[in-house]
């Protein structure tokens, strides 16, 4: 997020500033007009590493003023559409200075388009970049507790009311919390409720799981947070936290969050799996065979929510990612427009 935010901010400020400067140039003394003939079109087509092509065109024009022939190579300003050799176009220049000629369309709305596009690019990309950059900086952490300890679920866990389609109504949020608690019973997952949100995560606070998780080489902690945002709808955020194993006070290896926690919000999928065999009295035996993955956690939650008659929507970070993609697409369109009118 920090890198993406910085890139968007730089693009917004630099490109926006250039376009605003071009769109704010004073052409008040460009009062003379003449009809010019396009005498040459320099076409430059380039292909990037992904096979996409981009084409730019520079136009050379020639016209006559007071019996004197004038040629402008690579005439500046803003024009609309494409011209071919031999086309007659209008140019503007200060009286007595035809060598400064530009496209007349610059003074007929073209310059204003550049100004508005520059302001739009600066505000859109710069503002979005600043927001993403701030969010990225806020997500950085330099310290972390030894294990992730949740608050658990206070009070009695509500009984299973039956499938929503059978009882004719969706579950309440409290009933969903109860369903998640029952679904994770006897597993290395825990359900923690905080206000109007509930988080299902690997239970790193339960020492009975540490030995198994350490032997499995677990290096990521998975969690999913659900928050009601509407009628029978939950905002969902999946996260992964990097872990290291360190010696505790009694010499036992315990899971510890690294100096910096790497978190990816939105929807994530990851797998940790290990099988360990040993030679025993009965021959070769499998002593560890456990699969712990984020897909298992997602399946557990999905099954509970389906039974409850609830659905999930994008969380705030996922919506930001979606808007980033939309803005990137709009930026490409803007770039094409700028190329066409410049």
Describe this structure in words.
The protein is an alpha+beta fold. It folds into 2 domains: 2-137 and 325-341, no CATH class; 141-309, no CATH class. The chain has 7 helices and 13 strands. It has helices spanning 2-23, 110-139, 164-167, 173-184, 210-215, 294-308, 316-341, and strands spanning 32-47, 53-65, 68-72, 88-93, 102-103, 189-194, 197-202, 220-230, 233-247, 253-257, 271-280, 283-293, 311-314. Strands 6, 7, 8, 9, 10 and 13 form a 6-stranded mixed sheet that branches. The protein has a 5-stranded antiparallel sheet with strand order 3-2-1-4-5, with no helix packed on it. Helix 1 runs antiparallel to helix 2. The protein starts with a helix and ends with a helix.
What is the element string, with H for helices and E for strands?
Answer: HEEEEEHHHEEHEEEEEHEH
Helicity, in percent?
Answer: 25-40%
Report the uncertain regions. Answer: 139-149, 259-265
Number of helices: 7
The figure for the number of domains is 2
Q: What sort of overall outline do the alpha carbons produce when their principal axes are compared? A: elongated
Number of strands: 13
Strand content: 25-35%
What structural class do the secondary elements suggest?
alpha+beta
Main beta sheet: 6 strands, mixed
C-alpha-based Rg, rounded? 32 Å
N→C terminal distance: 32 Å
What would the average pLDDT be, to the nearest integer?
A: 75
């Amino acid at each position: 997020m920090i890198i993406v935010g910085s890139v968007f901010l730089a693009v917004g400020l630099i490109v926006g500033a250039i376009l605003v400067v071009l769109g704010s140039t004073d052409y008040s003394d460009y009062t003379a007009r003449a009809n010019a003939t396009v005498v040459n079109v320099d076409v430059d087509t380039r292909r990037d590493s992904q096979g996409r092509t981009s084409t730019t065109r520079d136009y050379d024009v020639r016209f006559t003023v007071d019996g004197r022939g004038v040629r402008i190579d690579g005439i500046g300003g803003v024009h609309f559409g494409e011209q071919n050799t031999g086309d007659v176009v209008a140019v503007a220049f200060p009286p007595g200075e035809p060598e400064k000629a530009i496209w007349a369309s610059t003074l007929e709305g073209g310059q204003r388009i550049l100004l508005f596009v520059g302001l739009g690019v600066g505000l859109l990309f710069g503002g979005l970049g600043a927001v993403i950059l701030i969010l990225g900086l806020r997500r950085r952490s330099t310290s972390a507790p030894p294990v992730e300890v949740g608050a658990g679920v206070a009070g009695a866990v509500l009984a299973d009311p039956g499938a929503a389609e059978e009882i004719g109504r969706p579950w309440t949020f409290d009933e969903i919390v109860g369903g998640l608690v029952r679904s994770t019973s006897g597993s290395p997952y825990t359900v923690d409720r905080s206000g109007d949100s509930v988080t299902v995560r690997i239970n790193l606070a339960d020492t009975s799981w540490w030995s198994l998780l350490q032997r499995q080489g677990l290096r990521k902690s998975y969690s999913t947070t659900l928050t009601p945002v509407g009628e029978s709808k939950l905002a969902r955020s999946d996260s992964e936290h990097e872990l290291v194993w360190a010696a505790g006070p009694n010499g036992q290896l315990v899971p510890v969050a690294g100096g910096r926690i790497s978190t990816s919000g939105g929807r994530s999928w990851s797998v940790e799996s290990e099988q360990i065999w040993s030679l025993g009295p009965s021959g070769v035996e499998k002593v560890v065979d456990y699969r712990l993955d984020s897909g298992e956690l997602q399946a557990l939650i999905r099954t509970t929510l389906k039974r409850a008659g609830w659905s999930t929507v994008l969380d705030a970070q996922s919506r930001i990612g979606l808007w980033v993609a939309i803005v990137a697409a709009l930026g490409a369109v803007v770039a094409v427009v700028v190329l066409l009118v410049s």
